Amino acid sequence: MSLALAAVTGILFAAGTWLLLQRRLTRIIIGIGLLGHGANLLLVTSGGRAGNPPVIDGSAGSPAEYSDPLPQALALTAIVITFGVTAFLLALGYRSWQISRDDKVEDDLEDRMVARRNELDGPEGPVDDGDPDTNEFEAEGDLQR
């Protein structure tokens, strides 16, 4: 693999990962696309030198003159899978846009409650609101203080 293709593959993976960590659904979809392109480029470049035929046709020649067909088949499969996942995510993003008119990915209510519980626990550890014998909790509940 040439140094330029390795650098491009690394840049695609880095940019795709950075976009996946964003809160906007369109950026997440683009990030998944970039990761797919990086994986395809990695597979194609690992198959051999450019210009070598992938099929052994019986002519005399060393095996080093041929490309490995397995990475090429894996790249074609990865292209189809990436296309399907991208189409599904685009439909999901469009439906989310229709419902909320925003493409920001919000935290779940449960995630916020767990984060709040961890903040309320403090450095001394979790606070037990319930009776260990009866498993009954106070009327306020575990998370609403």
What would your notes on this structure say?
The protein has 145 residues and is an all-alpha fold. It folds into 2 domains: 3-100, no CATH class; 107-145, no CATH class. Helix content is 58%, strand content 0%. It has 4 helices and no strands. It has helices at 3-20, 25-45, 69-100, 109-121. Helix 1 (3-20) packs antiparallel against helix 2 (25-45) and helix 2 (25-45) packs antiparallel against helix 3. The chain is elongated.
Backbone shape: elongated
Question: How many domains, in number, for the residues?
Answer: 2
Report the span from N to C terminus: 59 Å
Overall mean pLDDT stands at 80
Task: Outline the biggest β-sheet.
Answer: none
Work out the number of β strands: 0
Radius of gyration: 26 Å
Structural class, by secondary structure, is mainly alpha
Percent strand equals under 5%
What helical percentage do the residues reach?
55-70%
Instruction: List the helices and strands in order.
Output: HHHH
